[in-house]
Amino acid sequence: MAARILLSLLISFSFSVAFGGDPSPLQDFCVADLDSPVLENGFVCKDPKVVKAEDFYISGLNLRGNTSNSFGSYANRITVEQLPGLNTLGISVARADFAPLGINPPHYHPRASEILTVLEGTLLAGFVTSNPENRLITKVLNKGDAFVFPAGLVHFQKNIGPGYAYSISGLSSQNPGVVTIANAVFGSNPDISGHILAKAFQIDQKVINQIQEKF
Ligand SMILES: *[C@@H]1O[C@H](CO)[C@@H](O)[C@H](O)[C@H]1NC(C)=O
User: How far apart are the CA of 67 and the centre of ligand 1, in A?
Assistant: First the structure.
């Protein structure tokens, strides 16, 4: 009896590990019907008979993004919303452009690991491990170099080269999600109470209010 309980615990544990990412597909494809009123985990499938090559196709990843903003970067994220053929397949792609000294601010993807390849320029890339170590792992990436950001970990990039830089990333979810740390903490709607953030960041509440005003 005890052995059977242990076995079932082990099985349920291994299943919860195996299904940490997007669920596995149960058919060749399930092109998202983005107009369906039915809500489910992902999107319902278009009738396979009316599926076209265009459902699996997107162009424009050769185009430079507009980096004229306070970060000096732009991310073109191609998720299931832009590319319905990604539905149920557990992958997506993104292009990031960086002006000189531009950054992609610290953020994480709640549902995906990421592998980023630099196609032009030089980036400093890094991620931070979870508590209690919070170890920062960084690498300078040149053209042709790739770097992995494990799912759910806070990560960032900075263009440290003299010129412009860009990268292409593969992500292990049709809808990785993005949580930008500064926006989530200081720009939530409504605000997280200044008392809470002052204690969390161990600084004066006036400083918290100043930061909140920027978001
Ligand atoms: C880039 O974005 C800035 C700021 O939003 C805007 O003023 C500018 O016109 C844009 N440039 C192009 C080429 O779209």
Answer: 8
Model pTM greater than 0.90? no
The reply to whether 72 and 150 lie within a common domain is yes
**Element housing 7 (H / E):** helix 2-18
Residue with CA closest to ligand 1 atom 14:
66
CA 68–ligand 1 middle distance (angstroms): 6
pLDDT tens digits, 69-120: 999 999 999 999 999 999 999 999 999 999 999 999 999 999 999 999 999 9
Q: Which domain holds residue 137?
A: 67-78+90-175
**Residue 114, by phi and psi: left (phi above 0), alpha (psi -120 to 50) or beta?**
beta
pLDDT in tens, 131-166: 999 999 999 999 999 999 999 999 999 999 999 999
Indicate if 163 and 194 belong to the same structural domain.
no
- Residues 187, 214: Cα–Cα separation, whole Å: 8
